[in-house]
Design a protein that fits this description.
Blueprint lengths: L7 E10 L4 H11 L10 E5 L4 H12 L18 E3 L11 H18 L8 E4 L2 E4 L8 H17 L6 E5 L3 H10 L3 E6 L11 E9 L9 H12 L9 H13 L5 H9 L3 E7 L18 H8 L3 E4 L17 E10 L5 H9 L3 E5 L15 E7 H6 L2 H4 L1 H7 L13 E7 L4 E2 L2 H26 L3 H11 L15 E2 L3 H15 L17
Parallel strand pairs: 2-3, 4-8, 5-6, 5-8, 6-7, 9-11, 9-12, 12-13, 13-14
Antiparallel strand pairs: 1-2, 1-8, 10-11, 15-16
């Protein structure tokens, strides 16, 4: 059972939401990020269950795991928002909660006497769990790093009764969250009515927690939990495997006459392929937006394609149970428009057996597919070869996280990467300028290192030797990773054939070997 990742307990504590600049400031922060040293304070934590020294030590420990939700490569520094709250000593025999509320009331009375106003505190319950979504103003990151872990806790029955998130920008994501965790509020940036502001309340314990997608047991099951809670899909939906098996059964039940055999040969089973259209940004980047520029052409070619799945032996454990005999299938292809409302998007994805998308946020939508579907993620070959590994593979890790059912159980989704020929990249003037600058800087650095090496500068000699092994600037990918592309149909067709064959447990003949071969 997955634990809440790196939680830090503040016993007998109160949450005081502050104005934080109001809706205008929150919208600005979602758009441009936040500078905590300049931004209005968002909240204050009053902690009575620890001594001042214990509180300092606890917050110092928490500091390293709670990240800034609008810029998660920096720390949130909650130690700046936590204060020790002395409990009144006059009623030593009172209940802790009563003494805590009395302390907050005394504080409010003191503020009122000085002419300032403050909220009235109530008792919130035994515990409040607070989390800070990574890239709170994003979409796919919020799903992967926050909603899926929370949904998994809901599925396993380990979700806390009261939950607070710093905020979520997109209303549909707030709706997904509150569908599985209705008693959720926003501690910093509310998005009403879906995600209301947290009340000023005291608790027996406030837990400061980080969530980690890496601890998920099953990303697809977590996503299905969200979809079922929203009414987007049925709790007992059929899998791709069941649909293929039913189709095979119905074909087998046909009369074994020559006419029936001819009819079966003339009407091969259909595989539904869904291609995702990307949504151009209103103020898009000057280096491209990873659009597929010939998507209509691909759709037309896809809809006139029949695949010959030549079996080369059983793949062992194919989810669809189609055996190893191979056969013919006809592709029926559809383009999913960008920006569909989520209910329509999920319904469209539920009809698909193979989902094709560009590398990026569209990949996360694959979690709405039925069990046993295949995902084909297209990525620029040069970006895949030279870009940062953690970045390139993040969507695959988001989608395929699966630890249940044992080693022999097939994963909920099949995942294939399709490398797009870099020659299909459409380089903008800004991209070309970026490339030229990197080449110039790279050559100048090599010349400086070579000159320093001639002076027997040991560090420069080492750099020069390393540079001699480079044939191009290593960071060129930064200039074209977001480029729009023209996609070649023939290689994509071959990848689709692999995806369909894999679904049906058909091992395709190997045309080449990849990686190191074991010696035997």
């Amino acid at each position: 059972m997955p634990p809440w990742h790196r939680c830090h307990s503040l016993p007998l504590a109160c949450l005081e939401p502050l104005e934080g600049g109001g809706p205008t400031e929150w919208a600005k922060q979602w758009k441009s990020g936040i500078r905590r040293d300049r931004a209005p304070k968002q909240l204050r934590l009053h902690v009575a269950g620890l001594t001042p020294e214990e509180l300092t030590a606890r917050m110092e420990t928490a500091k390293s795991s709670i990240l800034e939700p609008l810029l998660p490569n920096t720390l949130r520094h909650l130690e700046r928002d936590a204060k020790h709250l002395p409990l009144p000593s006059g009623d030593a025999g009172g209940r802790p909660r009563d003494r805590l509320l009395a302390a907050m009331q005394a504080r409010s009375d003191a503020r009122a006497a000085s002419g300032s106003s403050g909220p009235s505190f109530g008792w919130g319950g035994p515990a409040l769990t607070m989390v800070w979504p990574q890239w709170e103003n994003g979409f796919g990151d919020v799903i992967a790093h926050t909603l899926l872990p929370i949904a998994e806790h809901a599925r396993l029955g380990t979700l806390p009764a009261r939950l607070a998130v710093s905020g979520i920008k997109f209303k549909i994501l707030g709706q997904l969250l509150t569908a599985v965790a209705p008693a959720t509020c926003a501690s910093e940036r509310p998005n009403p009515p879906t995600l209301p502001r947290c009340n000023a309340s005291c608790y027996g314990e406030i837990k400061l927690c980080a969530l980690d997608h890496g601890k998920l047991l099953d990303a697809w099951e977590a996503a299905a939990t969200l979809d079922v809670a929203m009414g987007f899909r049925s709790a007992n939906e059929s899998s791709i495997a069941a649909a293929v098996a039913a189709s095979s059964s119905s074909m087998a039940s046909l009369p074994s006459s020559a006419d029936a055999a001819a009819a079966a040969a003339a009407a091969p089973p259909v595989v539904r392929v869904l291609m995702a259209a990307r949504e151009p940004h209103r103020t898009g980047p000057k280096m491209g937006e990873r659009l597929v520029l010939n998507q209509e052409e691909l759709l037309e070619l896809c809809n006139t394609t029949t695949l010959e799945l030549a079996g080369g032996g059983s793949a062992g454990g194919g989810s669809a149970g189609g055996g190893s005999a191979g056969g013919r299938v006809r592709l029926e292809c559809e383009l999913m428009p960008a920006g569909l409302p989520m209910p329509e998007q999920v319904a469209t994805l539920q009809r698909a057996e193979v989902y094709v998308c560009m590398w990026g946020g569209d990949s996360i939508h694959a979690l709405h597919l039925r069990r046993g579907a295949a995902v084909v993620e297209m990525v620029n070959s040069e970006f895949k070869r030279n870009g940062p590994w953690a970045w390139i593979g993040q969507h695959r890790r988001w989608i395929t996280r699966h630890r249940g059912g044992g080693k022999e159980a097939p994963p909920p989704l099949r995942y294939l990467t399709h490398e797009l020929n870099h020659s299909g990249s459409i380089l903008t003037p800004a991209s070309q300028l970026c490339i030229d600058k990197k080449w110039k800087s790279w050559r100048e650095r090599r010349e400086r290192d070579a000159a320093a090496a001639e002076r027997n500068d040991s560090a420069a000699v080492a750099r020069s030797r390393r540079a001699a092994k480079e044939t191009a600037p290593g960071s060129l990918w930064d200039c074209f990773w977001n480029a729009d592309m023209r996609v070649e149909w023939a290689p994509l067709r071959a990848t689709l054939a692999r995806a369909v064959a894999d679904q049906r447990g058909i091992e395709q003949p190997q045309t080449h070997r990849r990686g190191r071969q074991a010696k035997g």
